[in-house]
Design goal:
With 283 residues, the protein is of the alpha/beta class. The chain is built from 11 helices and 8 strands.
């Protein structure tokens, strides 16, 4: 894990920050992929974390954390800015076994009863674990509560979730780290699938947007979102770079396309959930 963190942080450091003044690149962003995990709380108190996100030009942040207490802390600090997302992990190593832990379902039920969430996730899932009773129960809860599933997986696993619920609202983290033709196939096949572009600097190597990705982003301009993905405490040191190259992507797109990806799509997706329904009595 330490080696992986080193490699990714090295990519951040060598990436540089996008330098563009185009209107497409400078507009406010709704970030759909932020984490505020327990190892971040002491060095980055809630108000400080929110300030750091606002400095990036983020107008709203979808946040999950391990454990969920971090999300509740940020939401309490600024409920207009934070959109809570409910993670399935209670501790870091739980991510390796959660899909076989039936107590996860009871925990999700309790938290969904006590609080409002826009999504369940981000959860990591492989195809061999995608049909477990826990996954079936989680998909059923997302359907019952009319919320999004934010999944970190490959294309085959996304398809397995749609087999469990063909009408599921799914946000595909990192567009699965898949090639543009694979992402296109899934977006063509599933009208309730969106993809976030967090940690996908490969789509704009050396500051030039890949031609295949440019066409995909334009053709499916209503299905992509952005995210800085603060998955490790060290990543908070480089969030400006993470947002910078995504703004560089926006600068290579028509302004109306960039606006959808920067913010409009996230709002449109949120409107399809129960999040905006009033009178729930939950906080």
């Amino acid at each position: 894990m330490r080696y992986v963190i080193f490699i990714i942080l090295s990519l951040f450091l060598t990436a540089g920050v996008a330098q563009t003044d185009s209107p497409a690149a400078q507009q406010p962003v709704i970030d759909t992929h932020v984490h505020y995990n327990e190892d971040m709380w002491e060095s980055l108190p809630p108000k400080t974390a929110i300030e750091e996100l606002r400095k990036l030009g983020i107008s709203r942040a979808w946040v999950s954390s391990t454990p969920d207490k971090g999300t509740r802390m940020l939401y309490a600090a600024d409920p207009e800015f934070i959109v809570p997302v409910l993670r399935t992990y209670r501790y870091h190593d739980h991510r390796d076994i959660w899909f076989d832990d039936m107590t996860v379902i009871d925990d999700l039920k309790k938290r969904l009863k006590d609080h409002r969430y826009a999504a369940i996730g981000e959860f990591h899932l492989d195809i061999e674990d995608a049909r477990s009773p826990v996954i079936r129960g989680m998909v059923a809860l997302a359907k019952q509560h009319q919320i999004i599933l934010h999944v970190h997986s490959d294309a085959q696993t996304v398809e397995s979730l749609f087999q469990l619920n063909p009408d599921a609202l799914i946000l595909w983290a990192h567009a699965g780290f898949e090639k543009n033709n694979v992402v296109k196939r899934l977006l063509d096949s599933y009208p309730t699938l969106w993809a976030d572009l967090s940690v996908r600097r490969d789509i704009i190597p050396k500051g030039k947007l890949n031609d295949g990705w440019r066409k995909l982003l334009i053709d499916h301009s209503d299905r992509f979102t952005l995210g800085v993905d603060t998955w490790a405490v060290q990543v908070w040191m480089f969030v400006e770079i993470a947002m910078g190259w995504q703004r560089d992507v926006l600068s290579h797109l028509p302004n109306e396309v960039a606006t959808r990806i920067a913010s409009t799509n996230a709002d449109a997706l949120l409107r399809q959930t129960s999040w905006n329904q009033l009178g729930t009595g939950k906080k």
